[in-house]
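Late entry, evening session. Most of the bench is empty. Finally got around to the prediction I had been postponing all week. Sequence below, unchanged from the version circulated by S.P.
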Amino acid sequence: MGACFSKVFNGCPLRINSALTWVHPETRDQYLLVGAEEGVYTLNLHELHEDALEKLLPHRCAWLYCISDVLLSLSGKPPQLLAHHLPGLFQRRRRPDAPSPLSRLLPRCPTPRAACGAAWPPPAAPPPTSPRWTGTPCWSASGAACGWWIWGGTPTPPWPPQLTFDFPVETLVCLPDSVLAFGRHGVQGRSLGGNQVTQEVTDESRVFRVLGAHRDIVLESRPAGDPRAPASLYLLTGHQSSF
């Protein structure tokens, strides 16, 4: 089965910086969480007929990451690195008298890069797991074509494959046996074994942007001729060797 964009929300007015999906450990409902200039919002992907984003947190959010039901966010002005216990946060949304699920990890954090170096996770939380693919991409571009050299550790003969894309690459998502390269108008996957195209989705009438690739790949899309139009939100489904 080839990759395809599955629309989960149409006409989103938010200015989104980051997004991810999360499964509630009790209800098993899957949620889309988006961090935007307007706050953190959530969408129950099992109830798409409602077609409504619900505000979860009120502060500006520049970055999101989730592990072991704990949501890390870079939120506020100036930015602060915060940890939110998601089941407690959803409970508090329905019961305002419930204990606060918020922990402040750093008093101030000017950039997402600094946040990545914070002392975390909290007690009893396992360390983040690394993707199975650990190679380091190095790239060079000439015109619209990009060539990516892929290897893990120190390369030795035979030399690693060169993955070639005939469009400017904006985001790479590395899978165990292939690489997904996202450009302005879609995505192309190429095998690490021989540079063969494994999947491709292109729509010249739309402009796509990857919002997150933790657990699921989340994208937003706008008409190519109207960059200020409300965005549609998508999940990439059907791609091979997904996380």
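Two things to note before I forget:
The chain has a mean pLDDT of 77.
The chain has two helices and 19 strands.
Will write this up properly tomorrow.
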